[in-house]
Write a structure and sequence with these properties.
Chain lengths: 302, 167
């Protein structure tokens, strides 16, 4: 047990904004000396491990109005950034409409952590395990930027998320999951392919080595109408495999295509390795779990 | 920026209910609930171990839900109803504790208070849980000496005891 923060005498001030604009103003004023805090569960691990110093000011987001609910929007479900992971896990509509999201959340830590941790915190960490599932649903992020709200595709934000200054002062308000379009819902012959996998070193409460999500539709003949493939895990920034998706679309999901997809995932997925699992293992794992799901779908669609 | 009502200073007043008693505690708002319980209130049944929410030894109930006391900061506990293992046993040995005794659900006992609090949270939400729900509810509690067989049997016995008491 190492030296903890209490023993260092670090006692940051905690600020309690009531609106997104007020929270943004605090962050703007404090700069690097102020940090937004949602559940604080990831921050605590970083503080205790000495990866980052506890800042002089914590900006508590739990009291910011309107960020703790899951709302039905005109064209999508809006997950307030301060919604706890456990609330996401138990939300009936989210579970029914976007089951990969609840599958992913269920695999994060344990209920006791998920009662504090939030979906916004998981996304803001960039490498959160929920992000891979959200990518496969084509999620977008709604930010407060100081002069209003801005919507940004999750996939676009991830391209620059780890670059210095990419977050700036902006505050994540909600995650938007678009409802399936009318064509998807009307075409009853289309078969949905939807699966999320997290592979770690233990069955439960484990950091991920690989996360993978598949979401799409096959027509009655087994042709790929649409498909999204997303991969992440560990410290790898999750991403869509758009080149492979394009190559699959319009093709019959047969053994030849499955073999091609496996090879393309091995090429396109660039995981960060660590002392526990090298890149080759992670590539093969991601390719195997995705192709296994596609193979299962191909068998039941014919 | 409007200071005053929104700022929390170095020492602030934490008002909450712990095991049925109202408390007003002067504490830095970022101080962990674990240290408040153990060092300030002497409630040492809540154990300290990993400090990062991984082992479950410090499990408490906050408004009836399981939370790692090493993760919860004082300001997050304002106005909350907190129950520690001492609160679970306030009326004598709880049926969950009795089940752990009878089924050998402990050895060194260090993880046991956290285990029992997690089971209390589970049974508070799901009086008749499935095996999957039991596994998920205990996924944040590690035991490094008993093995999980006795713990699993204890949970089953606690469920059965509650079921019998209800009929």
């Amino acid at each position: 047990m190492g030296l903890n923060l209490r023993e260092t005498g670090s006692t940051p001030k905690v600020w309690h904004p009531r609106t997104a604009a007020e929270a943004w103003a605090y962050k703007r004023n404090f700069g690097p000396d102020g940090v937004y805090v949602a559940g604080g569960t990831l921050l605590r691990t970083q503080w205790e491990a000495g990866i980052v110093r506890m800042p002089a000011n914590l900006i508590d987001l739990s009291g910011v109005g309107g960020l703790s609910d899951i709302l039905i929007g005109e064209d999508g479900l809006l997950l307030g950034s301060q919604t706890t992971l456990q609330a996401c896990r138990m939300h009936a509509l989210l579970q029914r409409t976007f089951p990969m999201a609840t599958d992913a959340v269920r695999s994060i830590a344990a209920p006791s952590v998920r009662h504090l941790a939030t979906i916004g915190g998981n996304v803001a960490s960039v490498v959160g395990d929920a992000v891979t599932a959200l990518l496969a649903y084509d999620a977008s992020l709604i930010w407060h930027t100081g002069d209003g709200e801005r919507q940004e595709e999750l996939t676009d934000w991830l391209l620059t998320a780890f670059q210095p200054g990419s977050l700036n002062d902006r505050l994540l308000l909600s995650v938007k999951l678009p409802f399936p379009d009318e064509q998807d819902r009307a075409d009853s012959s289309a078969k949905r392919v939807s699966a999320y996998h997290k592979v770690g070193r233990r069955e439960a409460f484990t950091p991920s080595l690989v996360t993978a999500a598949v979401h799409g539709f096959l027509d009655a003949s087994g042709t790929v109408e649409s498909i999204r493939l997303a991969v992440g895990g560990g410290q790898t920034v999750p991403r869509r495999l758009e080149e492979a998706e394009r190559e699959m679309t319009g093709q019959t999901l047969d053994a030849k295509l499955l073999k091609h997809v496996h090879a393309r995932i091995m090429e396109l997925y660039e995981p960060r390795e660590d002392v526990f699992a090298d890149s080759a293992y992670r590539k093969r794992t991601a390719a195997n779990v995705i192709v296994a799901e596609l193979w299962r779908a191909s068998r039941t669609s014919t | 920026m409007s200071e005053g009502e929104t700022v929390k200073n170095e020492y602030d007043e934490l008002r909450c209910t712990i095991n049925g008693t109202d408390y007003s505690i002067a504490a830095p708002p970022s101080e962990r609930l674990l240290m408040i319980l153990r060092d300030r209130l002497g409630l040492t049944g809540t154990k300290r171990s990993c400090d990062i929410g991984r082992c479950g030894a410090c499990m408490v109930l906050i408004d009836g839900k399981s939370v790692n006391a090493c993760l919860a900061m004082a300001y997050q506990c304002g106005g909350k109803r907190i129950t520690t293992i001492e609160g679970v046993a306030a009326g004598g040995i709880d049926p969950i504790q009795q089940a752990f005794l009878e089924e050998g659900g402990f050895q060194c006992g260090y993880c046991t208070p956290g285990m029992i609090v997690s089971v209390a949270a589970l049974l508070g939400e799901h009086p008749d849980p499935t095996d999957d729900e039991i596994a998920e509810a205990l996924s944040g509690n590690l035991c490094r000496c008993t093995g999980y067989g006795g713990i699993w049997r204890a949970v089953k016995r606690a469920i059965e005891a509650r079921r019998s008491a209800a009929t």
